[in-house]
Amino acid sequence: MAKLPPRERILDAAEELFSREGIKAVGVQAIAGRAETTKMALYRHFATKDALVEEWLRIVAADYTAVFDRLEEAHPDEPRAQILGIARFIADGLPGISHRGCPFINSIAELPDRTHPARRLIEAHKANQMRRLTDLCARAGMSDPDEAATEITFVLEGAQVSTQNGSVEDAGERLMRIVEAVLDRHSAPKAAR
Question: Start and end of every HTH tetR-type domain (predicted)?
Fold first, then answer.
């Protein structure tokens, strides 16, 4: 099996180490060593550690965006099915984040400077997800799409934190039940509430 090019090895090593140990705890020497390359090679591909962090998070964000895209393709005229698919994706991924947690939440905790390029990338990614979710809620006929999208976002992100800290059992299935309840409640005519 052929060895990956240095840039891909560096990104893979960064993902593994940042996910397991955190951004601040991992130095470029550890990343270069894990990638079986040198610091000089790392800096040829990424001018700074911050640039590497930003590129890693750009890839993570693209993976989440791809989920929305795949669900849109699989259920083009079924916004409710797309919303439930997003929730299912998060629910199914909870066991994988139980040790270290969501890369976005963890990165924001380690990057308090709101002007940091990686922090701005996360904020833009989250804003785009919220816009897409709000649009899906509107297309699904929710009585208040903004509120429904906000509630669903709270549940999706809260489930990830609760899984990481071990405070809620069966978080994935509970997440699915809550999202369905939000959709049902916002689908009901206002007069029926």
Answer: 4-64
Model pLDDT for residues 113-159, shown as the tens digit of each residue: 999 999 999 999 999 999 999 999 999 999 999 999 999 999 999 99
Q: Which residue has the tokens 């990614």?
A: 125
36 shares a domain with 55: no
Q: Are 159 and 94 in contact (CB under 8 A)?
A: yes
Same domain, 5 and 36: yes
Length of the chain as a residue count: 193
Q: Which residues, in sequence order, are CB contacts of 89 under 8 Å at separation 6+? A: 67, 71
Query: Domain residues for 156?
Result: 50-192
pLDDT digits (tens, 9 = 90+) for 52-91: 999 999 999 999 999 999 999 999 999 999 999 999 999 9
Residues 110, 24 share a domain: no
Tokens 């669903």, residue? 152
Range with the poorest average pLDDT among 2-6, 46-50, 80-84: 2-6
Shared domain check, 58 and 42: no
